[in-house]
TrEMBL record:
Co-factor remark: The Mn(2+) ion enhances activity.
Record-given protein name: Amidohydrolase
Cofactor names: Mn(2+)
CDD domains the record matches: M20_Acy1-like
Organism from which the protein derives: Pseudothauera nasutitermitis
Record's keyword terms, sorted: Hydrolase, Manganese, Metal-binding
Matching SUPFAM superfamilies: Bacterial exopeptidase dimerisation domain (SSF55031), Zn-dependent exopeptidases (SSF53187)
Length: 398
């Protein structure tokens, strides 16, 4: 492993920063303490700071030389509304809030890169350090963009990094094309006619309608979409009735839809609406159907992904630079990749053996109350981000 020596020497310091962030998690658009800490450190290192994009977003500007070229490095800062079960000293101090996805580690890796870039400035151009709020809930990337991120800080490429439990520490995965799915939600309310449970013939029961729709939705995946396209329709919430002997007036159903291609998503949304409306009509009921598109699919650009792989091969043995199998989770970095070429890579977080005594009993997976970021990978992530920026700005015609 060919890490940057100066960053490797800061491993203990970076671990302290990461654990401080872990102990003080903040939810989407509430990252005030985190943003203050980030802005304070950047200022201490002589990096000009712009604040306010996306509310709590922070952008650091590291410039050297006269080149107009610029590259962006992005990290997310927010935590999840999860109650942490870990008992080690840096466990969350705020009940119901937890860094259960590793954004504390992502922020720390970018801070490590920022410190090195500010001290060495071995590049010609500008590096924009994007500390983004609200990845988990609220689409902070999109909000920063609406507030003028790419107009105020024009860049030719943008790169991001996420930890991945289950991939060995010291390994980085990346692939061109779709690596994460779009995130979409639906809600439908079936309006029937309430009545006595003993006299169902006088009512229009919305619950059998819901059952019909639930079954029919799975046929979209097996009989409507192309077999080689991947998608998920998950019904996760069902609400109806208050007492056992009353047929309710209505039934509400909610869930999630994931897909990689826009074409497949269009098909699913259309068929879901048709099935809901026609199933309800068949039973004499009516339905209100809503479909909300949250995050698009995260699609890595070919050239930028190939470039990032070249950078990794100078840092790691070839067997530790692997292909990323697409997964159905979603990420709002997708919005940035729709506007600016770039790549989103995945750094191995290991299998959980790094966790200290006092961790929860569950697996070390993201969005899990016993998760913890692997501090051993902080120098690798920071070194990767530095080399991405330096080599991108050194490319002819970049």
């Amino acid at each position: 492993m060919n890490l940057i020596d100066a960053i490797a020497a800061q491993a203990d310091y970076l671990t302290g920063v990461r654990r401080d962030l872990h102990a003080h998690p903040e939810l989407a658009f509430e990252e005030t303490r985190t943003a203050d800490l980030v802005a304070g450190l950047l200022t201490e290192w002589g990096i000009p700071v712009h604040r306010g994009l996306g509310g709590t977003g922070v952008v650091g500007i590291v410039k050297n030389g006269d080149s107009p070229r610029a590259v962006g490095l992005r990290a997310d800062m927010d935590a999840l509304p999860i109650h942490e079960t870990n008992q080690f000293p840096h466990a969350s101090r705020h009940a119901g809030k937890m860094h259960a996805c590793g954004h504390d580690g992502h922020t720390t890796m970018l801070l490590g890169a920022a410190q090195y870039l500010a001290r060495q400035r071995d590049f010609d151009g500008t590096v924009y350090l994007i500390f983004q709020p609200a990845e988990e809930q609220g689409g902070g990337a999109r909000v920063m963009m609406r507030d003028g991120l790419f107009e105020k800080f024009p860049m030719q490429a943008v790169f991001g990094l996420h930890n991945m439990p289950g991939i060995p520490a010291g390994t980085v995965a990346l692939s061109p094309g779709a690596v994460l799915a779009s995130n979409n939600e639906f809600r439908l309310t079936i309006h029937g006619k309430g009545g006595h449970a003993a006299m169902p013939h006088l009512a229009i029961d919305p619950i059998p309608v819901a059952g019909q729709i639930m079954q029919a939705y799975q046929t979209i995946l097996t009989r409507n979409k192309k077999p080689l396209e991947t998608a998920v329709v998950s019904i996760t919430m069902l609400r109806a009735g208050d007492v056992p002997n009353v047929i309710p007036d209505s039934c509400e159903m909610q869930g999630s839809v994931r897909a990689y291609s826009a074409e497949t998503l269009e098909l699913i949304e259309r068929r879901m609406g048709e099935i809901a409306e026609q199933s309800a009509a068949m039973f004499g009921a009516r339905v209100d159907f809503e479909f909300r598109r949250n995050y698009p699919s995260t699609i890595n650009h070919d050239k930028e992904t190939a470039f990032a792989r070249e950078v990794l091969l100078d840092l790691l043995p070839a067997e530790q630079v692997i292909a990323q199998t697409p997964i159905m989770a979603a990420e709002d970095f997708a919005f940035m990749l729709e506007e600016v070429p770039g790549c989103y890579a995945f750094i191995g977080n290991g299998d959980g053996d790094h966790r200290l005594p006092g961790h929860g009993a569950g697996p070390c997976m993201v969005h899990n109350p016993s998760y913890d970021f692997n501090d051993a990978i902080l120098p690798l992530g920071a070194s990767f981000l530095v080399r991405l920026a330096e080599r991108w700005l050194a490319r002819p015609g970049a």
